[in-house]
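Hi R.,

Here's the input for the magnesium ion complex you asked about:
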Amino acid sequence: MVTQQRALSTVADTEAFGRELARDLKAGDLVVLDGPLGAGKTALTRGIAAGLGVLGRVSSPTFIIARQHRAGERGIALVHVDAYRLGGDLDDLDALDLDTDLNHAVVVVEWGLGVVEHLADRHLLVRLAREPESDVRTAVWEWIGPGRGPRHPVRPE
Ligand SMILES: Nc1ncnc2c1ncn2[C@@H]1O[C@H](COP(=O)(O)OP(=O)(O)O)[C@@H](O)[C@H]1O
Ligand SMILES: [Mg+2]
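And here is the predicted structure with magnesium ion in place:
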């Protein structure tokens, strides 16, 4: 797998990056977001939502665990999960009692690293790091699992 990296100087950059990622997302995809509080996970999700064209405003799902956004023109819904308070593995997304048909949705999980990867055979992992005393965030991302990397993967040393 190829790991890609980018500096995100402003929140607008983070949202634009989310819109860019969304161009490549398909229904059924799982996106795992990692990074500390304030790293921009929700801002990135806002960009992904804009790129998917889903309905409703993205905000932190902290107090409800999962927020569902209905599909817009692309026909792809968004399920935005905050795994912070799940306290361990999520055995099944059914446990979230969603109305959304996951075959027609992208699932984005904040704090999802180590919690949800096993729910899909592959996922897009985006790690966001926050520079101290600066607005700059760094995103490092890669598809993990079969079927979604470049055709001729280059193994970075
Ligand atoms: N480059 C940047 N990318 C994302 N957010 C930024 C950036 N610079 C400043 N911010 C601010 O940092 C905060 C990020 O919050 P949020 O997206 O909720 O983070 P998280 O969901 O990771 O806790 C927001 O207040 C946002 O305006
Ligand atoms: Mg958040």
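One thing worth noting: The pocket of adenosine-5'-diphosphate (ligand 1) is lined by residues 8-11, 13-14, 35, 37-43, 60, 110, 135, 137 (CB under 6 Å).

Cheers,
M.
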